[in-house]
Amino acid sequence: MEWVLAEAxxxxxxDPGLLLRGLCRGEVSAERxxxxxxxxxxxxxxxxxxxxxxxxxxxxxxxYLVPLLHGRLGGPDLxxxxxxxxxxxxxxxxxxxxxxxxxxxxxxxxxxxxxxxELRADSTTGAEAALEILAAVAxxxxxxxxxxxxxxxxxxxxxxxxxADGPGRAEGAAALVTxxxxxxxxxxxxxxxxxxxxxxxSGPGRVGLELRLLSALAEKLLPESxxxxxGPDARRCGRFxxxxxxxxxxxxxxxxxxxxxxxxxxxxEVSAERGDACTCGPQExxxxxxFWWSEKKKDELLKFWENYILIMETLEGNQIHVIKPVLxxxxxxxxxxxxxxxxxxxxxxxxxxxxxxxMFESENKILTKEGIIHFLELCQxxxxxxxxxxxxxxxxxxxxxxxxxxxxxxxxxxxxxxGSPLGLKLQKFLVIYVSLLPEEIKxxxxxxxxxxxxxxxxxxxxxxxxxxxxxxxxxCKTLGLEGLIALRDVIQCTMITHQILLRGAAQxxxxxxxxxxxxxxxxxxxxVSIFLTSLKQEESLGRGTAxxxxxxxxxxxxxxxxxxxxICGPDGLPETSLxxxxxxxxxxxxxxxxxxxxxxxxxxxxxxxxxxxxxxxLAVDVEGMKTEYSEKRRIQNVLRIFLDPLLDALVxxxxxxxxxxxxxxxxxxxxxxxxxxxxxxxxxPQDDEVSALLKSTVMSATESVSQFVLRRLTMHELQTEPTLxxxxxxxxxxxxxxxxCEASALQPVLELDSLDAEPMDRFLSAFPFNQTLRKPCAExxxxxxxxxxxxxxxxxxxxxxxxxxxAQYVHDQxxxxxFLLEKYHTLVPAADAVPDPVLPAIQMPAQTLRSALDxxxxxxxxxxxxxxxxxxxxxxxxxxxxxxxxIEAFDTAWNIVSSLSNTQLTFWPNLKAFVHFVFDNKVLTIxxxxxxxxxxxxxxxxCKIIEMSAVKTGVFNTLISYCCQSWIVSDLKGCLSCAKxxxxxxxxxxxxxxxxxxxxxxxxxxxxxxxNLGQDCAANVIMENTKREDYYVRICAVKxxxxxxxxxxxxxxxxEDIAVKxxxxxxxxxxxxxxxxxxxxxxxxxxxxxxxLLVLFPSFDQNFLNGIIDKIFHAGFTNNQASIKYFIEWxxxxxxxxxxxxxxxxxxxFSYGEExxxxxxxxxxxxxxxxxIIIQNIPDKAPLLKQALLIALQWxxxxxxxxxxxxxxxxxxxxDVCKALGVEExxxxxxxxxxxxxxxxxxxxxxxxxxxxxxxxxxxxxxxxHPLEDYCLETIFxxxxxxxxxxxxxxxxxxxxxxxxxIPCNRESQWYFSQTPLRELSPGDWSQQDVGSxxxxxxxxxxxxxxxxxxxxxxxEGPDADLxxxxxxxxxRLGKSVSRLIVVASLIDKPTNLGGLCRTCEVFGAAALVxxxxxxxxxxxxxxxxxxxxQWLPLVEVKPAQLIxxxxxxxxxxxxxxxxxxxxxxxxxxxxxxxxxxxxLLGNEREGIPANLMQHLDVCVExxxxxxxxxxxxxxxxxxxxxxxxxxxLLKREDPS
Length: 1537
Hints:
By secondary structure, the protein is mainly α. It is 59% helix and 2% strand. It is built from 70 helices and 9 strands. A 7-stranded parallel sheet has the order 5-4-3-8-6-9-7. β4, α67 (1420-1426) and β5 form a beta-alpha-beta unit. α9 packs across α10. The radius of gyration is 45 Å and the shape is globular. The two termini are 29 Å apart.
């Protein structure tokens, strides 16, 4: 049509120039400019380049087309709309024709120069126009004459196309580069050179832009065999492959990754077709090339790349069920990639690492975990050749992926505390990989590994398992001082977490890492000692632990190998190098240098004292390893050598008034730290000779120290302006006195009966508590610098704020007072009634308690522990006489404790002290007795503690454990006078437990794993097992209840009260939510209720059961989960067995109508199946058996299949009892019963009837469970929950009861353990849905197993062959085949149908989808069905009223109009042959195709049907026709005949 129009215009005009000028007049429109383009192209084809035409072409270009492209002419809106794009495209094509018609001088060069100047001007509008002009005229440039200009155009275009900051210009520049490259020849070589000189892509954005150009030029850069004008071969360029790898592994958007896969696919196909050898260069290092091809190995190469591309395509789906079957192909890739002969890489490892990187960065965490585990297992099962890329990948992407805590969760079916599968695989992987590394590489790899751990934030779980993996690396002396410093920094990273057990364990593993990997010849003892001080001794490095022994052994073996330090001992000393170092360390610490003698230097560093004390004890224990048992005296001699300078100074403290104050302070600090380390948990004082010797040595200087301390504390009281030195002296002295009091408190003392106090006791009692220290003036503080180079390292720097100094001073005061109150606790009166007290703090308790409250208001929360300890002595004495003061103490203390919820180190000791003084047995007894405000305040605090326990695990454990212990101790006379007033506390403990979030469960699992390591992890020894898991609350309550004596009336009443409250709680939960999910909180609470009732059952008598039996039966009718039903059935069986008097009530349960009972009757039928056990003590069994048979037979006729199964089981069990006992009364029913059971055995009904009958008979409750023999704690709390499908968190192993030693065990050990085969059974599947047996099939797929694969149409052209097209037009050329089929859906109303059609049309490559309104595209229902297909399919808007005109237009263009409708003359779809140019018109959902449109149809096609329904959904109908059209066109391509 276009050419006909052009010929007609030219025929009417003799002067083409005049015709062209005429077309330029008037308003600019798309039609006018396109007509102009047609004319110019016709003139160009006709060769009309003579006469006035060249000048007219120049005039047209300069006066009309160039201004039009710049937007300087009127016309369509300048917004980037379809009409404007149409105008610009036509104008550019016309300008290209003008350049060719203009002749000489060349117009193209002139326009190109002007356009380049526009580009340099950096104007957005001008740059876009310049790019359009260059795209039009660049193909007209002469390869030789304009080579320099062409090169400049290409360089400018490539630079703009790769500019990620200018996306608008980048689009146009990319179109220009593509146009130039498609021309081939010099232009293509210039583009290739420009791309090569642009530098290696840095960043995902730049990679995407470069891949866009490369994919658009793929046909030229990767030419097929025999291609003319072949350009450079990109396969041989290393930079090309690095860009492809970057696109595969680093690109964030799917389109960039698709372009990279396309280029790889194209390169492989071209290599296979051409068959020539190819190697990518330049080759880096000794490894393989990034890409190579050999015709000899064509089959292996094709197989490798086919699998590789399949894996990369599958990973785009992000669906684990699709990806998992493909993972075995990754193993095959590895087998292809590594040579079996010499164990080296055949393919560059970067290709494999791209796959793993894609998996690691997936949004699907399950896929990420699968990828990591696959990578770790691959390196464990096969020998991985060394390559730098592999090591860099481990330190980079792998460690980044390992930082996600959720990846360390347990696998399904794995027991709690068995360890993270990922963590254990990581450990094996690191051990194997480091062992295989070359020695010259190993040191650098481990150092980078540690630096990576140091340089990012880690959560507690990942850094724990990384540290454990490092600790298991075999001994190899590879780390020097830099590595030791990196390890120290990693230890600092562990301090971030609040999980102190995980933190302590990580420190233990990192210390083991240092001992295994540090080369002692490269570090000094000073370096090691500084490293050791970075560990928290109260969390990891405790004396007496296995880790301490391992450290001593390491020092012993290597002590003469350490790098020499600057400190040298005197010549001729027999001591070892470690002894020399420590001896000099003590001397340097004790002595006062010249600069220290000034009065301004009074701030010694506590960390220096800690370091010295630690090294003293290490050196002594190392000496003990070298000494025979007969020479233990040598240890004493060594210790005395170390401590001589200290003891000499301590003895002279009381007499030498001229000793430098800094020296005295340092001596006291060292004394405090030595005592602190020796008293730390982990040391065994009974067997610790060093600790005993140290204490005895220190005791020899006690009198001197006491005199000095008291003098220091009192000498400056009269000074009005104390100096900083005076204040610091008092702080250090009080700290020393507090430590002495703590050490003295460990010694057993006799109970005092008089106030015959020692001088120090009188001083402490009369001391003005809460007296703070005045802050010295700023000038003094400024003078007190501490010139120590490494002081910034020590964490306890004495240059901290003055407020902390004062807080420590007040804290130490209350430590001393706590010691005093404990010493004289029996002499504390009940009120302040002593006129002239000898010990004021003791004899005036109310005043002391008021001082304690004042102290709590000023002390920071981490310093209040000794105040709580004092309150424990004072509150029981004052609860009656000063109740309001005690209640104020309760409130103040609780506010402090609750504010500490995020401070792990201080929260637990303070909570324990708070519980000890608020819930002291004396306090509880007095409060319950007087029933005043204190009683209700305590109950309020109980509720708050339980509420806090829901968010902080372990809080309730502290409370219930202490209360139960105190009640047991106080209940020697068998009277629960205190516990019965707080029975709700025991009730809540019996049912306590929350449903934790996934991250909380992970922390608990890992803590249990660490605890299971036992003494192999020193953190378990140092930090007491806190028993903070929720199940320990129930263990404590159950063990407490088990200890109660049923023969004691008070105990019996207490148990009955608990039982009634438990049944009420169960009823309340059932009413709150009638239906609940398995393992929900409601399920767990009800489960715990019935577990506790089973434990209490032995204490129930008939009188009590008369009151609760109806509630128990009522619970049987409630809709419950399987585990709860088993518990209810069990307790009913036990009740009926022990008290047969309740059997009539049991028979009554079967008398209700079936509609009311529904399936709950199964509960009572299950009980009936155990009738043999119930009646074993009844002499006359026949009537009961007869009654049971009648009931079972009755329910065998139920309409419900499950009820019939349970009735059959009961019938079979009861009948077996009848036959065993030979009951003649039932012999008349033999035929009926035997036939019923025989029919059940040969059940041939539909579905799984026979299988279910077999299952229910084999179920543990009917086949193996014995209600009497299995009655024990193990069955109640572990076996039955495990067999009934309860989540593992609810399983409480019986050894947990034994390990919980806070409450003593019951004397009957058989009550704990199960002695029957029930414990050996595995869970059955009767009470749950059928579980498939092929859960691991995906993991066992062989290489040739079929896998899911989404169709990706590669074809032979690049995804971006024409970047100048509209987005949707360009999408039609993303490598997919576009047909000539148009689908018209203007009559369809529903967005869901339109969205589905859009997706179908895009998948099968329709040319366009016509909609009644494009507004429907934004509808959420449309988008849900289309899944973004509208972005890749041309959409046209045609209103229903415009359909007739549209159909006529398409018919004129040669389209056959096909209606999808059933008519009298419609064609069968199976017989109809679609023309290539087909238009499908779909009707409305309800009315079909209107009659006014029927006459415009060429043919109607109907779908043959076999059913009764007369029509299909319009989307389904359209999809069937679209597919049939596509199928026929595919057949035509394969066989054109």
